[in-house]
Design brief:
The chain has one helix at residues 7-26; strands at residues 45-46, 69-71, 74-78, 81-85, 88-90, 98-100, 103-107, 110-114, 117-119. The chain has 121 residues and is an alpha+beta fold. The protein has a domain at 45-119. The protein starts with 6 loop residues before the first helix and ends with a strand.
Length: 121
C-alpha cells in the first residue's frame, strides 16, 4: 500500500476538506445578543425619540405557569438604532410584585430609558 498522493487523490482530499469546512461554518451556533427587560444598572441613552409602541398580542390566553405575568415588549437602543424586544412571560421575584414597564424620558443628554423592573406592592 503506497502513501504517496497522486494529483487526483490530493485534489479529492482538498475538496473534501473544503466541503467539510464549509458545512461546519454553516453550523456555528452563536448566542443571541443579550438584552434585559430592565436597565440592569446600565444607563441607556438615545439621541432620538423612540418609535411608537408596537401592538403585541399576548401569545396565549393563560400563562404557561399560574404565577407568571405577561411583560409587554419595548423599544431598546442597540447598535445605534432602536430594536423591538418582544414581550415574554415572567415570574415575579416575590408574591404580589408588579412590573413597571420601560419608558423613554427626554433629558438634557437625549432620550433615557427608565423602568423595566419589578416593584413591591
Amino acid at each position: 500500500m503506497s502513501h504517496t498522493l497522486t494529483p487526483w487523490r490530493s485534489a479529492a482530499l482538498c475538496a473534501g476538506a473544503l466541503a467539510a469546512a464549509t458545512l461546519m461554518t454553516g453550523c456555528v451556533v452563536a448566542p443571541a445578543e443579550p438584552h434585559y427587560y430592565g436597565n440592569a444598572g446600565a444607563v441607556v441613552i438615545s439621541p432620538e425619540a423612540p418609535p411608537p409602541m408596537q401592538y403585541e398580542p399576548v401569545p396565549v390566553a393563560v400563562a404557561p405557569v399560574a404565577t407568571q405575568i405577561w411583560i409587554g415588549g419595548f423599544w431598546d437602543w442597540s447598535g445605534g438604532r432602536y430594536v423591538w424586544r418582544e414581550g415574554r412571560w415572567a415570574t415575579p421575584p416575590h408574591r404580589g410584585d408588579h412590573w413597571v414597564p420601560r419608558e423613554w424620558v427626554r433629558g438634557p443628554r437625549g432620550w433615557q430609558a427608565r423602568g423595566g423592573h419589578w416593584e413591591r406592592r
